[in-house]
Amino acid sequence: MTVSLSTTIGNFTFDNCFMNAAGVHCYSKEELLDIYQSNAGSFVTKTATLEPREGNPLPRYADTSLGSINSMGLPNLGLDYYLTFLEELEQSSTTKPTFLSLTGLSSQETHQLLNIVNQSSFQGLIELNLSCPNVPGKPQVAYDFETTNHLLAEVFTYFTKPLGIKLPPYFDIVHFDQAAAIFNQYPLVFVNCINSIGNGLVIEDESVLIRPKHGFGGLGGQYVKPTALANVHAFYQRLNPSIQIIGTGGVINGRDAFEHILCGASMVQIGTTLHKEGIPAFQRLSQELREIMVQKGYESIDDFRGELKYFA
Ligand code: RRO
């Protein structure tokens, strides 16, 4: 039996449904090319701001037995670096569509970034990060529904390229309803659930693990899978079918990816596991997912995407 992991987001086709999650192995051209040349279906850049940023003081990322905690503080090489790289890559190779992640430190900066991208020759997808948990003094945009609605309304007056948003986890059914009602008003191509669970605290012996914010940071890995699955499925149930879901959070093995797709994900991103294992994680996860599909008789991910079973 031949099993395909190919998928689509909007008008884009990918040979493999796995890619990195923004923030992991995507800071430099070299890291991005590592993913591009692997069997991953695509890559997303580190979230870019207008100016390069150094981010928070080290240590700012720690692997733990159940996942990871980070307070990177949006270190990145600036929009121009990533956009120029993507434009050059598209000139030399068109084998994989790619994602550019970005966010402004203010609404005004976000519009500035999106205008630059709109006028560029970049042909891929854009992920607007509304959920960075780690910039001191800057709350996550997506936890403020009024600001989010206003921002998206303004963006879609001028932005014409394929746009999706990176969301934080929500924890209340009313919030799923309210957020989905907002997103359904706009021609978003995808939502990506979830960013890290913000502001956790991990302790070893008597000390925190990371320096910024007295040790508080975003959680990833095993800690977050049930929350990630709930968010993927909640939005799959509520969003217009034209808005696809990218599932991110707690994918350690093929079974975890299978569950994200069952909940409705069209693509699956790998963060903590990619940080722990490196590029070979894509091959392993692809193989593990294929084995599950063979056992169950599924030839493509469309055969089971969104088919989560409930009690009667
Ligand atoms: O750079 C970070 O601290 C960071 C970002 Br922008 C994000 O979106 N999610 C995260 O866990 N860390």
Structure description:
The chain is of the alpha/beta class and 312 residues long. It has nine helices and 15 strands. It has helices at residues 29-36, 79-92, 107-119, 145-155, 173-183, 225-238, 254-262, 272-277, 280-296, and strands at 7-9, 12-14, 18-20, 61-64, 67-70, 99-102, 125-129, 163-167, 190-193, 197-201, 203-204, 207-208, 216-220, 244-248, 265-270. The strands form four sheets. A seven-stranded parallel sheet has the order 3-15-14-9-8-7-6. β8, α5 and β9 (190-193) form a beta-alpha-beta unit. The protein is globular, with a radius of gyration of 18 Å. It starts with 6 loop residues before the first strand and ends in a 16-residue tail after the last helix. Residues 23, 47, 70-74, 129, 131-134, 195-196, 218 line the site of ligand RRO. It is found in: Cytoplasm. The active site is at residue 132. GO terms for molecular function: dihydroorotate dehydrogenase (fumarate) activity. FMN binds at residues 46-47, 129, 166, 194, 221, 249-250, 271-272.
